[in-house]
Input
Amino acid sequence: MYTNSAEQRQSGCTANGKPVCPAVPDLPPVAAAAGGSEGGLGEEDAQPPQVLGDWRAFRAKLVAESGDGGWAARQAEDNRQLLQIQSPALAQEETWAHATGAPEVGGLLLATSVAPGMLGDEYWQVVVFLLQHGPQGSLGLILNRPTSLKMGRGRGGLPMSLDGMPELRDAFASSILYCGGYKAQHIVTLLHGQRRLEGAVEVIPGIYLGAHEAATAEVVTGGLLQTDFRFFAGCLAWEPGQLAREIAAGAWHTAACSRTLVLKQCLQLPVPLWREAMCLMGGRLMGWSLGLFFTVAVAAVETATLCVLCAYAEESQATSYSGLVHAKLGPGAGAALAPIMYIYLLLSCTAYLMIAADCLCPLLASAAGPEAWWAGRQAVVAAVGLGVALPLSLPRTLGAVAGVSNFKVYAIAFVVGAVLWRAMGAIGEPAYSWAAVHASTLDPSSPDCWRGLAVALPILAFGFQCHTAVVDLFLELEDEPSFFKPSSSSSSSSTGGRDRQPRSSSGGSSSGSNASSSSSSSASGAGSRMSPKLRGMMGVGVASLGAMAAFYGVMGVAGYLALPGGPDSNVMNGFPASDPLMQAARVMVGLIVIAAFPVNHVPARSTILEFVSHHLAPPAAAGADDSSSRRTSSSGGSGGSRGIGSGGGRSSGDGQQSELPAGVYTAETLLFCGVATAIALSVTDLGTMFQLVGGTAAAVLIFGIPGALLLKAATEGGSEGQGGGRRALLLAAGIALELITVTSWGVTLYNLTAQH
Output
């Protein structure tokens, strides 16, 4: 460790009279680099941590054996080749990194996407090597902030004197000086991996500080290279408990890593160090071609299950998803599904509030400062949940919030366009390297590969999920839908759907033969018997999920090309937080999920109120309602097929509706929004919630129920004509969907158990 001359100690690292890093008050030196050097820590503070062997490498092997490794497949090959030139011996060592549950000496702190908004723009994608961590506070060095200065005394050299050996500056004349942090910048720290140097202080096995005299002698005699050493001016320092608070607020990822990431030079890396470390921790699994393949495959399967639900919605004239299950799979299945579906939609809306807060909090904190109470996560979640989502959820029909849904389409297009624009700019940079772009990086022999897929696919399936609202949408759809003329639902929504009549499957009056048809007739009937309304609904489903797949595909490929070394799970996190275009995109994402809240709440409300109606109705009325739910109205009047989802009430025994009081809808909405907000305030792990919701409840609703409908159609269908072939096809499709459901449950629960 070396200190600058007294007259320059307050100016920070400088180049041509300008500070390289912001000047900050002096703190105690980072660590004892040269034994007994002036300005170092006291003898007691300079003691290195006492360890027996490299336990970190042993732990890394355990992580690899548990399936979290697979680092060879995720290593940045261009960075490895550059390291081979700079330090051949270091390049022979394995490069690895994995997440840890807490900060540790010798570990890394990687700035998250919210760090710039909380701590300052200079913290964007910083990688910090932690030197000390304990009850007295924490100290670390920023690894990836090279300056334009060199240690030499000539042109471009450090324009200040050092309280140390003059021979050192001559020996390391071409060595780059790094900005180690914004505290104590008058102290220069020497970092290396040479244990044999006299006076070296061990941080962890394999990484050392100081020993400048021995280092100078080795470089002068040719025993070691200048690139085997790194010089840092300044450090980062945290008061007791400060780092823990920043981690809890989401500013840092904590990780352990191999010494290759710490000791190598961070100059013109093909893949920046932050991205390389994030990639090693699991940031890249498939490559762009396989990513597109799985996106399209999931979209295709979900489109098929959506069409199955549409067909049975028309046949049963159900008014909600749970009503459809009640009519086709029996009262027991409907009663079991209703609370599950309600909880699923409640947790989905909770996730939307969490996403909105994650998008808006950094922007508010950046504008008003982290001290502003109204920019904190708690305030934002409460304001969005009770001040915005609650009023939007009061209407009784989806048609009443059609404008909100239309806004989502334009907002998604803006977000995709913003990412695509920034990706094109990144690709156009002269320094852009295509070497890190891979069509496929899937390694079937790696357990980590399959586990990563198992985590990603349920989340992807959740991203396409719109099945819970399909019955409500079908109920409100006009008899002959068109993309180019106004929908009747918009006019009926003004009355809350109370004046809307049930529509028959033929688009006009219904027939008794349709009511008595078997389950298989709807799923396997000829296309000529498909009503215009059903064809239109299926067209809407195909177009909607196709557009979503296109949006996801374009955004994923654009993000991968812009950040090939390992994009964050949120693509926008890979771009600077201060980028105005990305700030606008984050706002749009927040508004998109807010707009999705009422779209999920309407089917949740119709489900739970219909469930309550069935169980609170008198036995005779309930029995009549069960039978009426299986037939269509022959008169097209105000009969029993109109239900809770369209603003109706409980069905009476004669087929007429007994309207529920308006206060029931308001009370349910207040309860739903209040509980969702409370959960969002108390839960911060969004990834775990997505895995749980997407891998369990969503799997049942998206794959399990359509599979059960197909299996019932296959087992109850007749044997006339070509029915045997159709039944075999329905049976195979139903079994495949049930296998997907069971597999999703098993893998999700296993992953969540392993994480905890």
